[in-house]
Amino acid sequence: MTREDRHPGIGTVHEEEGGVSDPLLDLLRRYVPGNVGVFCIAVWTTILHQLLTLVPPYLLGETLDAFFTQQRTSLSLVLVPQTWIPTGTRGQFVFIAGLFVATALATAITQAVQFVTFRWFQQSVLHDLRTNAFDATQRLDMAFFETEATGNVMSVLNNDVNQLRDFLLGGLRQFVESTTLLLGLLGFMIGLHWQLTVFSMSFLPLMLGLVYAYQQAIEPRYDDRRSAVGNLNAHVQNAIDGIETIKTFSTEHRERSELQTHSRTFWQADWRAAKVSGFFYSTRRLLTEVMSIAIVVVGGWWVLFGPPLAFSAPLTAGLFVTFLFYGRRLVKESSQIGDLVDTYTDARASAKRVFGLIQYPTKITKSADAEPLRSVDGHVEYDDVSFTYPNADSATLKDVSFEAQPGEFVGLVGPTGAGKSTALKLLLRLYDTDDGTITIDGTDVSTTTVASLREAVGYVSQDPFLFGGTVRENIAYSAPDASEERVIDAAKRANAHGFIRTLPDGYDTDVGERGVKLSGGQRQRITIARAILKEPPILILDEATSHVDTQTELLIQESLRDLVATRTTFVIAHQLSTIREADQLLVFRDGRIVESGDHEALVEQDGLYASLWRIHTGETAELPDQLHPHGR
Ligand SMILES: Nc1ncnc2c1ncn2[C@@H]1O[C@H](COP(=O)(O)OP(=O)(O)OP(=O)(O)O)[C@@H](O)[C@H]1O
């Protein structure tokens, strides 16, 4: 099993969430109303255009019968009042030529209008769909990203949305065209000669049966192909994200062979679909030819020797010519239903995945009666908080309780993996607690709107993330309207101004994708400046200075002193000197707070903290008993 295989398909959610049974109907139901005007014009001109294409064969048949085969004495045309038709042969000939030209013009105009309106409709719907799918990914809980590979999500946003583009432009238009043509042709043909129509249609059930069988066989194969391409993309994405690790461990070969496995799975899935498609298209072709030949043979016989079999109505040569065109067209259109089903099935699988993403259930961001958090003093209280990560076997936090007064400086210490970062992520509601409550100024954070909560809390994580762009844009990310002075001031307080000035373009220097052009310590200082600029009433610094040297760390601490003094600050640090001055220290071990108090009190207590402190000061190199991997 590879990394990506562990993730369930996004598409499964659509059905579970009780969406409309057909995701493509769902698509139209959601997006047509916003574009109803242009959609109606597109559909109507398509119908008109298709009906117009049926006129020339009809005119040709009538012309033949009226002027050349003398099977009719006067010219009469369906839907054209007899009074409009001139009486002399010359006049009638010019009149019919005029009709040919007018039909050609009208056909061209409707085609142009149909093309541009369908294109507009398609782009407008895709724009809305793309925006909604992107909104959905932004809204999703962190838990989602732990179960769904990024490449899979990217595949939905790119491949599946593009597949729907093909459906909206090609498939939907073809559906309108084919339906119009089939109904129009049947109407015309029955009106002209119902008996020959009955014969022409005798193969139709066979064709429709073939199409139905095809749809049943191809749909699961398309589903497989789609999820295989998602896994393939996920792997490529992972490999590009981790390119540095791959190179340093020289694991290019392993990654390549994993890619080949995914690529082969995709190839096999495609092959299974291709075999079914190949069989269908060739059988359809054969059936189409047989139907066309049968119309030619039977129709020709009819004209030459009279009605065959149980038929009774005579057939003129002109009408036979009209029927040759119509018959072929009927056969072609009914066989096109196969393509339509193909596009439809493919698009359906894509729509399932796109709506799976859009409708993915979110617990945190979608609380219906959440209230915004109003002016925050910064009194934070954890009451018996327990939490287990979605895919974890055991609890990460167990009965964690503590209280931080407004403006207090709280340090979190403890061995790695003890649950310090997790505890503070719950304050930001990156996850919700399983048990217990977290309150800010007495308000349970699970009842507040996520936006107002995160507005009140500044967070600098262990992994400083910078967006591609300039240094200034990255600092001002938390306050895009901040003045130049405020940005520089924040940078100074984060001890970043000095190095920024030495960069080639100062604050306008491009940091590269994810900030790769800067060192870890430089990135960290920019993320601290970003948090400072926001001036939040509550600040979380999670190992925020772990990448900088001791001297810079001291300088940052110095400049953060003011900041810390005026707001509730939580600092996680392994360098205990960083948090020695904290008003309160919380010592975590195995998801529990095992000691708390200020530095002096904890040293006196002579427990875990005191042991860690002795190691920190170099007084001892011995690992305390509690932390010894094999016990003692
Ligand atoms: N997204 C996650 N899914 C599942 N388990 C997780 C996740 N993030 C962290 N954990 C687990 O939860 C436990 C606590 O992790 P946490 O990051 O809170 O520890 P920490 O005390 O902050 O450690 P460190 O000092 O190394 O940052 C660890 O055992 C970790 O493996």
UniProtKB/TrEMBL annotation:
UniProt GO molecular function: ABC-type oligopeptide transporter activity; ATP binding; ATP hydrolysis activity
Span of domain ABC transporter: 380-615
Cell compartments where the protein resides: Cell membrane
Top-rank taxon: Archaea
Keywords from the named record: ATP-binding, Cell membrane, Membrane, Nucleotide-binding, Transmembrane, Transmembrane helix, Transport
Bilayer-spanning residue ranges: 93-121, 198-215, 286-303, 309-327
Membrane-related topology note: Multi-pass membrane protein
GO cellular component entries: plasma membrane
ABC transmembrane type-1 domain sequence ranges: 46-346
InterPro entries for the chain: AAA+_ATPase, ABC1_TM_dom, ABC1_TM_sf, ABC_transporter-like_ATP-bd, ABC_transporter-like_CS, P-loop_NTPase, Type_1_exporter
A Pfam family it matches: ABC_membrane
Stored PANTHER family: ATP-BINDING CASSETTE SUB-FAMILY B MEMBER 10, MITOCHONDRIAL, ATP-DEPENDENT PERMEASE MDL1, MITOCHONDRIAL
UniProt name for this protein: ATP-binding cassette, subfamily B
Organism of origin: Halomicrobium zhouii
